[in-house]
Amino acid sequence: MHSAAARPFPRAVPTYVGRDPELARALELLDHETLHLIYGVGGVGKSEFVYKLVEEAAVQPRWIGAIPALVAVRPGMAVEHVVAALRMVAGARRQRGIQTAAAASLDDDLSEVARLLDAQPLLVFIDDLHHLEPTAAARMLGYLSRHVRGSRLLVATRFEVPLPADAPPPAIHRLGPLDERATAQLVAQVADRLGGAGRDPSAVFRNSGGSPFYVLRELAAAAGGTGEGGPGSLEETLVELEPGARALLLALAAARGRFTADELALADDDAPRLLRELARRFLIDVGRHHVMVHDLVRDAAVRGGARRELVAAHRQVAELHLARLERDERGKGAIDPTDAVDAIHHLVQAGEADEAWELTARTYRTVAAAGLDHLLLDDLRAIATALDSGREPIALMTARIQVRRSLIAEAAETLSAIGDRGDQASQRWLVLSGEVAQRRGRLGDAEAFFHRAIAAADRAHDRFQTELALADVYSLRGRNREARDVLDAALAALPEPSPRDRARWGWSLTLSYVIEERFAAAASAARTAAEGIAGAGLDDLELLLAMLEVLARCECDDIARARQLIERVVSRAVAVGALREHVVDLYSGVVRYFTGDAVGARTVLARAFEHLAGHADHVLASIGGYYMARSALALGDVAGAIDTSTQMTRLATDFGLETLAPHGRAAQAEVHLVAGRLAEARSFAEAAMTGRSGAGARFLARLVLARAAAVEGELVAARRKLAEAEAEAEASLDDVAGDEETRAARRAALRAAADLERAGLELHGGDPAVALAAAERAQYHYERTERAGGGWLRRGSRAPPRWWCARSIRRGSAIWSSPSSCSTPPRRSRSRAATPGSDARSRWSAPRCWRAAASPTPAAPCSRPRRRRRGRRARGRAPSTARAARCAWCWATPTRCPACARCCRRWAWWPARATG
């Protein structure tokens, strides 16, 4: 698992013979298939076949620039080790950052590997896959074969891999033994290089069965290695080895990585002679960059080694890795984390638990920064079992890794084994317990743990970091002013804060504003914090701050800046691996929603919501669920919007997110209003305005109450409620937080939202001139901020474009003076596919009817269905007053009128408000 730069891909041996048909077929399939499985028994030449295949592919036009990479699976390795090795050879660069989403899991690592393999073409050879657990190996290969297109995966294994049913069919190459002619060619070439007369090819073929490995063993016996060949010749060769050669071979067999001959010579002056002896007997291969041991030799050596010999072998390998670490520290100052992981493992296997723990504590930061700390979990458990003292620090490190890997239940069990020691509890235990409680949704417990951790902190920096965590809990509980007080005190008490400290503080400050829905202040705080670390190499924090700024800019209708930020975030996140794919999906979905791509927004947000909720990241999952519900509503999928908003509210409520839950209730209120359930809508809206609801949730809730009043014919009350909502939203912007430009953008967004609502209310028996003026103001704002509704139509949304509001009013302004009338927007193509809630029998998208009558009493249902015209369309022409007077306002009572039923099901829509 040493770095790819130090591990060139092995070349094929000069004595390679046979396999021409198999090689030609593999080269032909290489351009078309991602996954290639090479099956064969041990010693049949699977690895050499892949070496030759890669060598031949390197001269093919498509693969001239492809980078070959080798990942060798060793006994005892888990699938996590292989995925980590794939990340390293693919060029991953991981940095430490704020854990804003669920930390890395195996799925996250596989997703990152897939992105890296698509970023540049690689020919990746996974050798000896049969050492992995079959189900885990199949899951890994199935995922990569489904998601990788730009690179190729070549896998050698002795056993068939049962890929998942949904995985694409792989290219399978089954290698049998060499035929007698190819065996004779191999015998002749090897004998020529050995300088002897060789042996009878027919006899070699009979004894070896055509297996290249056993052919070499037979020739080694003929050269004087063991005397007569036969089934037991390999074991006899191992028994006859001198002690030094046997110890070196066992060390090479036990190693999970590979070493060069020069590295072995530095560790032992006698190593060159021993290597020559082992190579002469065909036990190792020294003709390539690294010393290589055949899998059959490794199995036989480990199987025949005594316990003390294996312990000494692990100790020798650990010394080799430690020598690498020492050279790295002397040379470039940065160690290779894979060497640290392997050195710790071999020290544990050698029974050196004390030394293994000392090395773990010394190198942990580097290993964690590379995203490889989860590979230490099994060794840490072994260290804790072996050591009688010092178990608490080991348990705390184990819990830290489990939290980073989203293994929250396991982390809680690890911490409970230590137990709460009251005043004697360590600060690290208290911090970890607070993080676990926060991740489990127990914010009250998390707050108590963080308070105790602050009191127990000895160092100013530890106290500062814990105070930031406490402020985040306050923000999530809706106590935003207290959160900012804690942040101000923490920064003032920290002597000489570093740029990272200031940026981390700025992130918590931005979070408090976002949760409170003071988006102008949030955008300014995020921008200020990001400017403070620009060019400092803190890519992780810059990206995380940009994410919060994206959300704030969208809510301020600053779509141009939000789109620029998300494009920069996505490109850099892929390059440095600082953000999880599903976190990027969340914010990309928000931008899509605000730019009118409701179809794309719902697809991306659904993927992000499922992953984040499954990984216990309840904050981001709740945010994603809110915008996913709004996207479903914009598409006319009322049932889906009700389900999503209910799920989001339940999630926020169950986990104590006291500011996000009211937002979900406000969304539920709007969805139920569109569904015609006025009592439920009013109940949810009133509930959304209680407790620690933010300005945005209260604004939407008041709008819902205004709409409900308009539906019941109480236009005066509806106007009053709208005025109250607008005044309260304006008052939330009267603080000094945020720059004036951002506050002005947010104020304009709120006014446009209110204008759009005002237009809808006035159409319900009010003043059409006021409605027209308000709709035109909203239209101008949305077009200027790139939120023009044409995006809905271009992307196939079922929701009418926002400009239809102004256009319909403008076309039918003379009609609204009548007691009751309807306006029909332009119909679209008859070839539209049916969507949930739509009528597939309708010829065009059904028209949307607005009732402008002031009467609160619903009229009687139409006596017969509306007749569809097959000739010239009366575009924009309203039906007769007598005809329209028989219809209630269709979306308020969608099942009352057969003529409007299709209209109501398809266009269950009130002009969407501008803020999320």
Task: Name the features.
916 residues, mainly alpha, two-stranded antiparallel sheet
Strand tally is 7
Outline, from the CA principal axes?
A: elongated
* Mean of all residue-level pLDDT scores: 78
**Percentage of residues in helical conformation:** 55-70%
**Main sheet attributes: strand count, strand direction, barrel closure:** 5 strands, parallel
Count of helical regions: 41
Rg, Å, rounded: 35 Å
Question: How would you characterize this protein structure?
Answer:
By secondary structure, the protein is mostly helical. Helices cover 60% and strands 3% of the residues. The protein is built from 41 helices and 7 strands. The strands form 2 sheets. Strands 2-3-4-1-5 form a 5-stranded parallel β-sheet, with helices on both faces. The chain has a two-stranded antiparallel sheet with strand order 6-7. A hairpin with a 6-residue loop joins strand 6 and strand 7.
Architecture blueprint of SSEs:
Layout: H1 20-30, E1 35-39, H2 46-57, E2 67-72, H3 79-89, H4 106-119, E3 122-127, H5 134-147, E4 152-157, E5 171-174, H6 180-194, H7 201-208, H8 212-222, H9 233-240, H10 243-254, H11 261-267, H12 271-280, E6 284-285, E7 292-293, H13 295-304, H14 307-331, H15 337-349, H16 353-369, H17 377-386, H18 391-404, H19 408-418, H20 427-439, H21 443-456, H22 460-476, H23 480-493, H24 499-516, H25 519-532, H26 539-555, H27 559-576, H28 581-594, H29 598-614, H30 618-634, H31 638-654, H32 660-674, H33 678-688, H34 695-711, H35 715-731, H36 740-762, H37 768-784, H38 790-794, H39 803-811, H40 881-884, H41 898-906
Parallel strand pairs: 1-4, 1-5, 2-3, 3-4
Antiparallel strand pairs: 6-7
Helix pairs in contact: 1-2, 3-4, 4-5, 6-7, 6-8, 7-8, 10-12, 10-13, 10-14, 14-15, 15-16, 16-17, 17-18, 18-19, 18-20, 19-20, 20-21, 21-22, 22-23, 22-24, 23-24, 24-25, 24-26, 25-26, 25-36, 26-27, 26-28, 27-28, 28-29, 28-30, 29-30, 30-31, 30-32, 31-32, 32-33, 32-34, 33-34, 34-35, 34-36, 35-36, ...
